[in-house]
């Protein structure tokens, strides 16, 4: 019903009449009708029948019947009753100035004074709908209303609403007399003797009502109550707080900002103080303090082409009672968030140049919540030059000569890093833990084809590291052939370089077996891609060469371990430790396999169609043999692949084969098996030993439903990145990202999916097996009822992992949700009935009870 009606000035029927009123405003009144246009004898009154239209200045009116009185400057419009169906159709649809389009049962309008009377109006105003009653527009643009229903339900006969017995609507406010709520045509006792509603075209400040409930540990509570502050059109803020009867409390500051087509982001600062245990205990007297800092910023891709700036910051208090565990994930009871043991943050700036070079600058951190370890990189810098042909001309024609195929590249990385614990970070010597350095990488390569089918690559790489700190160790040896050392960090510039050479060859081998063209299986195709490589690098671990130094004890003697001289790198633990290995002259080998079946397509009605089924996708084996290694020259052989058995089921698998045999040895009085430098066939073994193996798969009974849901989420993400979003949309999208169950699509009738992973490991003495199974799904019991669930199975404890059940009811303009965690340390339930529209987000009924216990 909210349609935009534009005046078509290019197509006018023969009944169009243009007149000029007698008012001093001297404005034209344009009118037309599809059925007929009649006039009174004195031609002062015009009667318009059938899709009638009148345009006067910025006032537009369409109706089934319109009467225009030129002398009185008045316009009356109403609908007409269909003689066949008896329905009242052709209701007046009108628009005045910048006001939205409205529909009514009838309207009287004075074209000179611009006064109007409207009966049975239905119009949309800033997310809300006015319907019924009478409205009278005054000359000063004030609107007097009587018995008008205000609701966020978009039906002409709404399911609920606020009945305004009488009121005055101005440009910036609505002042009413008695107001009461009506639900399904039943008046309720919820009402006010008078009310005042701000009416502005921008966000305004207001109170946010809290949600009551009960927690088994902290008592009754009022959660997330506070105040909303509409700062301006681009920035807002919410101050929220929660209080508990045992004296615990939480505070939050949430802010969203956006600039259309430029950028958007949000900030969330949280602080909590929780008292645990019984009153009078130390845990109760000394509450646990927790904090959380979250900042997200994204730039529109088209805002500044070639330059990007983004931020994703998440810092929380750590330890056994960190923020997530102590606050039950910010009172969301989200199991995945509570189990989080690490967080990462980054702020990055990147610039891409027209010649292909790019530069980036980033600051990042990684936290391990259980150990309180933190790693800061402030900042990291990278600069890359794309590979280019230094000996090839841009205007070269014909086939390239061999030296014109040589390519060279360059990359630079700078790092400032601090690895410490959060309790030591801000001490006086905190900055002394800073490690700074640069690394340079220059690859040189040349590729060519020989004998038509063999692809060769020849090249080398030079690496150099610069560090502004280094270490020195002072060793002490003891009579029992043991030793210890003291390490000191020394400031000063140190550099070291390394290089390597390599060559590789690869090709493809095709195999095909055809079967009967009338059979179900028509052909089998096998593609093998073998590759062989050779690499060489000298020994960069020699004491005195490069960054390595000999381990000398207090007497000036060399320390030996296992008959070999001990040495250390002065770059151990520095910003750029480099890649300085022992002597290497190795052959690498690999084999990649793809197997496909060509089968008859049952869905092809001609009987001649076929389709391909990938049986094995990328089954690869790889290993190497180092001629210069003192022992164990042959590496382990790794393999991985994927098999797609049906459109719904695919399996990923991987493993490692150890070619070395085992022998028995005695360790601390126990016989154990260890590797010996003898290959498996030297001990009459037919196959190498399988040391680990794993496979995983996921399966969806309704993959089309999953595709639709992912496509919808991708579309939302693209809209956020390219077109910009309002702060309400950004907040709702962030809520969906945090809780996927917040987005319920009733157009998807059902879905059930699960994932399973299996891991096996055996070192010759102990074998371990781990299994993980997770499942989730949803089903529409009716077109308006949906049930969702997610859980898993713990094979170690032989039981279900914490389960979450949710029930949703679509009530058109309202919705109802029930969330239940039936068992586990974080069992809880909540019931919420609320209005869908955000403009009445506080019109809700909530009940919540949690059983979070810090002692579990």
Automatic annotation (TrEMBL):
<dbReference type="InterPro" id="IPR050218">
    <property type="entry name" value="LptD"/>
</dbReference>
<dbReference type="InterPro" id="IPR045659">
    <property type="entry name" value="LptD_2"/>
</dbReference>
<dbReference type="Pfam" id="PF19838">
    <property type="entry name" value="LptD_2"/>
</dbReference>
<feature type="domain" description="LPS-assembly protein LptD central">
    <location>
        <begin position="174"/>
        <end position="660"/>
    </location>
</feature>
<protein>
    <submittedName>
        <fullName>LPS assembly protein LptD</fullName>
    </submittedName>
</protein>
<feature type="region of interest" description="Disordered">
    <location>
        <begin position="1"/>
        <end position="27"/>
    </location>
</feature>
């Amino acid at each position: 019903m909210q349609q935009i009606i534009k005046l078509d000035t290019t197509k006018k029927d023969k009944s169009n009449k243009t007149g000029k009123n007698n008012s001093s405003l001297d404005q034209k009144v344009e009118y037309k009708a599809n059925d007929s246009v009649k006039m009174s004898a004195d031609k002062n009154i015009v009667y318009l029948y059938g899709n009638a239209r009148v345009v006067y200045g910025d006032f537009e009116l369409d109706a089934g019947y319109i009467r225009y009185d030129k002398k009185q400057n008045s316009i009356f419009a109403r609908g007409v009753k269909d003689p066949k169906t008896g329905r009242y159709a052709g209701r007046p649809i009108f628009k005045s100035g910048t006001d939205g389009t409205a529909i009514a049962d009838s309207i009287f309008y004075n074209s000179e004074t611009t006064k109007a009377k409207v009966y049975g109006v239905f119009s949309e105003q800033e997310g809300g709908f006015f319907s019924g009653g009478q409205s009278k527009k005054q000359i000063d643009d004030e609107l007097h209303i009587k018995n008008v229903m205000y609701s966020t339900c978009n039906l002409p006969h709404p399911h609920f609403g606020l009945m305004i017995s009488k009121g005055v609507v101005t440009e910036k406010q609505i002042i009413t007399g008695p107001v009461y709520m009506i639900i399904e045509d039943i008046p309720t006792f919820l009402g006010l003797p008078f009310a005042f509603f701000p009416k502005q075209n921008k966000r305004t400040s207001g109170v946010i009502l809290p949600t009551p409930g009960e927690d088994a540990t902290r008592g009754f509570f009022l959660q997330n109550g506070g105040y909303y502050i509409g700062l301006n059109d681009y920035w807002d803020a919410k101050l929220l707080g929660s209080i508990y009867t045992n004296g615990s409390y939480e505070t939050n500051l949430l802010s969203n900002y956006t600039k259309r087509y430029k950028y958007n982001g949000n900030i969330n600062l949280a602080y909590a103080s929780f008292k645990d245990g019984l009153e009078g205990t130390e845990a109760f007297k000394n509450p646990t303090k927790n904090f959380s800092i979250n900042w997200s910023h994204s730039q529109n891709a088209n805002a500044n082409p070639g330059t990007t700036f983004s931020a994703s910051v998440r810092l929380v208090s750590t330890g056994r009672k960190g923020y997530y565990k102590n606050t039950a994930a910010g009172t969301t009871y989200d199991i995945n968030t509570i189990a989080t043991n690490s967080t990462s943050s980054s702020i990055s700036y990147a610039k891409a140049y027209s010649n292909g070079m790019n530069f980036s600058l980033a600051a990042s951190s990684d936290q391990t919540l259980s150990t309180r370890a933190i790693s800061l990189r402030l900042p990291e810098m990278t600069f890359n030059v794309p590979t280019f042909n230094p000996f090839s001309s841009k205007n070269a024609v014909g086939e390239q000569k061999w030296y014109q195929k040589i390519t060279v590249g360059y990359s630079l990385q700078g790092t400032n890093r601090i690895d410490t614990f959060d309790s030591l970070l801000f001490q006086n010597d905190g900055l002394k833990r800073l490690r700074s350095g640069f690394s340079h990488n220059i690859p040189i390569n040349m590729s060519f084809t020989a004998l038509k089918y063999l692809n060769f690559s020849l090249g080398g790489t030079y690496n150099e590291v610069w560090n502004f700190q280094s270490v020195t160790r002072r060793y002490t040896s003891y009579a029992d052939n043991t030793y210890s050392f003291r390490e000191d960090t020394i400031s000063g510039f140190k550099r070291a370089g390394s290089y390597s050479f390599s060559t590789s060859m690869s090709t493809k081998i095709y195999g095909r077996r055809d079967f009967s063209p009338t059979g179900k299986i028509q052909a089998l195709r096998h593609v093998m891609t073998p590759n062989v490589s050779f690499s060489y690098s000298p020994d960069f671990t020699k004491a005195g060469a490069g960054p390595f130094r000999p381990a000398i004890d207090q007497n000036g003697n060399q320390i030996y371990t296992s008959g070999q001289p001990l040495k250390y790198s002065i770059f151990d633990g520095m910003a750029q430790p480099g890649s300085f290995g022992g002597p290497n002259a190795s052959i690498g080998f690999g084999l990649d396999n793809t197997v496909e079946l060509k089968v008859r397509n049952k869905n092809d009605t001609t009987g001649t169609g076929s389709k391909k089924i990938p049986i094995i996708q990328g089954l690869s084996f790889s290993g190497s043999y180092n001629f210069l290694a003192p022992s164990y020259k042959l590496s382990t052989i790794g393999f991985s692949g994927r098999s797609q058995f049906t459109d719904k089921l695919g399996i990923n698998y991987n493993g490692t084969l150890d070619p070395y045999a085992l022998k028995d040895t005695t360790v601390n009085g126990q016989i154990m098996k260890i590797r010996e430098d003898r290959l498996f066939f030297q001990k009459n073994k037919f196959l190498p030993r399988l040391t680990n193996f794993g496979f995983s798969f996921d399966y969806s009974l309704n993959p089309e439903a999953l595709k639709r849901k992912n496509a919808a989420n991708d579309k939302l993400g693209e809209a956020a990145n390219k077109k910009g979003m309002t702060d309400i949309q950004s907040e709702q999208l962030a809520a969906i990202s945090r809780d996927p169950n917040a987005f319920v699509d009733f157009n998807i009738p059902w879905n059930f999916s699960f994932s399973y992973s299996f891991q096996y490991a055996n070192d010759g003495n102990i074998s371990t097996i781990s299994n993980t199974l997770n499942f989730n799904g949803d089903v529409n019991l009716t077109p308006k009822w949906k049930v969702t669930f997610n859980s898993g199975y713990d094979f170690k404890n032989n039981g279900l992992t914490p389960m979450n059940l949710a029930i949703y009811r679509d009530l058109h303009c309202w919705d109802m949700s029930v969330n239940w965690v039936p068992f586990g340390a974080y069992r809880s339930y909540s019931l919420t009935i609320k209005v869908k529209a955000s403009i009445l987000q506080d019109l809700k009924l909530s009940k919540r009870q949690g059983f979070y216990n810090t002692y579990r």
